[in-house]
TrEMBL record:
<feature type="binding site">
    <location>
        <begin position="54"/>
        <end position="57"/>
    </location>
    <ligand>
        <name>GTP</name>
    </ligand>
</feature>
<feature type="binding site">
    <location>
        <position position="24"/>
    </location>
    <ligand>
        <name>Mg(2+)</name>
    </ligand>
</feature>
<feature type="binding site">
    <location>
        <position position="23"/>
    </location>
    <ligand>
        <name>Mg(2+)</name>
    </ligand>
</feature>
<feature type="domain" description="FeoB-type G">
    <location>
        <begin position="2"/>
        <end position="163"/>
    </location>
</feature>
<feature type="binding site">
    <location>
        <begin position="114"/>
        <end position="117"/>
    </location>
    <ligand>
        <name>GTP</name>
    </ligand>
</feature>
<comment type="function">
    <text>Probable transporter of a GTP-driven Fe(2+) uptake system.</text>
</comment>
<protein>
    <recommendedName>
        <fullName>Ferrous iron transport protein B</fullName>
    </recommendedName>
</protein>
<comment type="similarity">
    <text>Belongs to the TRAFAC class TrmE-Era-EngA-EngB-Septin-like GTPase superfamily. FeoB GTPase (TC 9.A.8) family.</text>
</comment>
<feature type="binding site">
    <location>
        <position position="21"/>
    </location>
    <ligand>
        <name>Mg(2+)</name>
    </ligand>
</feature>
<feature type="binding site">
    <location>
        <position position="20"/>
    </location>
    <ligand>
        <name>Mg(2+)</name>
    </ligand>
</feature>
<feature type="binding site">
    <location>
        <begin position="34"/>
        <end position="38"/>
    </location>
    <ligand>
        <name>GTP</name>
    </ligand>
</feature>
<feature type="binding site">
    <location>
        <begin position="9"/>
        <end position="16"/>
    </location>
    <ligand>
        <name>GTP</name>
    </ligand>
</feature>
């Protein structure tokens, strides 16, 4: 039986370096179906049964770039057994924007915080245990370039792949959560239980590329319009803003920046 692990992360997070270190020369390169975006897969060194799929580098799971659509279609349709999310530790706040969206897919996930050699060299520190607790997901520190911590990260992803339950997800404001529940109640039964939250959030954002079968965007319009009126903003901005506030709060106290000789919290 083969195990599928998807490697996901922002551009420049070190994804290619990690993919090469994990798979060595055991790689197959092609294109994603119907598009000219490169698709790379490889067997995890020492594990013939484990296939790692290198997803395109993306900042979000929104539908605005080909890379985002390719990555999310793979995650929704192929449903890998686990996601290994590589995060640039020198750019934690920005990278966690994608992380929070990946967690909503209901797929077991492990986070590898990369560039730890640079973080340490700068005298900065990340409270990994605390961050893992807040995100509800295992986190490991790695340096893809120096090949430190990468075996442990792959092992953690393999372990996550054998679990049925996904990581926890964060809650939006009460008004948004109520809307998400109402949208979820109107979703067709065919949608996998674990994926319902992701679909509900995307439909709330009026992301029409997520519509499946005979689903119609109009079916959710009353729910969305009510929240937009209450919060005086458009639904996509509501989600984006609440996500950034959540991330900002979360990393407060988890990231210590050593700047110009002074220890300060950012
Ligand atoms: C160049 N530590 C450090 N210090 N650097 C890392 C690490 C790490 O843990 N991991 C990756 N890098 P990609 P995406 C480069 O190419 O894997 C570096 O887009 C350079 N190139 O070596 O390509 C990695 O696949 C000239 O850096 O990322 C690469 O996600 C000068 O981060 C860059 C300096 O890694 C991006 C760096 C000609």
């Amino acid at each position: 039986m083969s195990v599928k692990i998807a490697l996901a992360g922002n551009p420049n997070s070190g994804k290619t370096t990690l993919f090469n270190a994990l798979t060595g020369s055991n790689q197959f390169v092609g294109n994603w179906p119907g598009v000219t975006v490169e698709k790379k897969e490889g067997k995890l060194k020492g594990h013939k049964e484990v296939v790692i799929t290198d997803l395109p580098g993306i900042y979000s799971l929104s539908p605005y770039t080909l890379e985002e659509v390719v990555a999310r279609n793979y995650l929704i349709q192929e449903r890998p057994d686990a996601i290994l999310n590589i995060v640039d530790g020198t750019n934690l706040e920005r990278n966690l924007y994608l992380t929070t969206q990946l967690l909503e897919l209901g797929i077991p996930m492990v986070i590898a915080v990369n560039m730890m050699d640079v973080v340490n060299k700068n005298g900065d520190s990340i409270q990994i245990k605390q961050l893992a607790e807040k995100l509800g997901c295992p986190i490991l520190e790695i340096s893809a370039l120096k090949a430190t911590g990468i075996k442990e990260a792959a092992q953690a992803a393999l372990q996550a792949a054998t679990q049925v339950s996904a990581c926890k997800v964060h809650n939006f404001s009460t008004q948004v959560e109520e809307a998400l529940s109402a949208i979820t109640n109107r979703l067709p039964q065919e949608i996998n239980e674990n994926q319902k939250r992701f679909y509900a959030i995307k439909l709330f954002e009026r992301d029409e590329k997520i519509l499946q079968g005979n689903m119609s965007a109009a079916a959710f319009e009353d729910i969305i319009a009510k929240v937009e009126k209450e919060l005086d903003d458009d639904s996509e901005s509501i989600i984006t803003n609440e996500r950034y506030i959540y991330i900002g709060e979360m990393i407060k106290g988890c990231y210590k920046k050593h700047s110009k000789g002074n220890l300060s919290t950012s």
